[in-house]
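Input/output pair, single chain:
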Amino acid sequence: MFHVIVGAGPVGTATANLLASRGERVRVITRRGTGPERAEVERIAADATDSARLSELTEGAVALYNCASPLYHQWFTDWPPLHHSMLRAAERNGAVLASACNAYGYGPVDGPITDTTPLAATQPKLKLRADMWRDMLAAHQAGKIRATEVRASDYIEANSIFSFMLAKPLRAGKRAWVPAKLDVPHSWTSVSDVATALVTAATTERAWGRGWLVPTNPPLTVRQLATRFTELNQAPAPKLTSVPYLALWATGLFDVTVKELRHTYYQWNRPFIVDSSVTERELGLAPTAIESALGNVAR
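Output:
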């Protein structure tokens, strides 16, 4: 079968590698033509916001995977044209539109996020991802496309607070400064599990028309995760300092990336827990062991 992936970040790359390892034909589309360098993967440089071009590149595909990852501070300008282009391409070619998403659309919640938790975010940037799914679902229910989505918590291996701010200093035995409370339970998702859930949902008919929580292990605090990481790497016990929110807010005046953390700080100052038991039961999946995921954190 032929699959098209938009985006070659951690999830897009993991998805391409998973499909290629299964003997599938894979095309990865990015602006610069990046992606895994392997014979089964065709890398195409193209602007995925060009719906005519994307439709051309998606012709004959069984699934179109949205693994794009615009910079947070450019979401309002970058996501809408990309999202609508993928909707049009999926409608024209009949490919299942499968979106790799996060948990932002739920907004602040009381208690674990489950398959029945509503997408209730009101902050505009968080609501954007929820609205994208609502567009996909409406098109699915109207019979225009077939759509599904998987939603993950913070990644362990890449593009997360852990990989950006903790892994390097922890390996070196240095102090890590963390923009989060250290002893609050938090769910962590393996990138490989996102890819597996995404491909499973895209290729399983009964998964269409629903959003799925990616299989995720029981929550760990930042301190617990850091301790497991240092033990695995035979590094000194972790030295951690929590950065106060006021310091984070002030730093955001000068750093656009840190500024974006203000919108999701609620995930770090109180328990943020994903209950993926329905996905695990209905799709027959299980999360990667924490130690295995931590072993894949890049140096």
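The longest helix spans residues 75-93. The chain has a mean pLDDT of 94.
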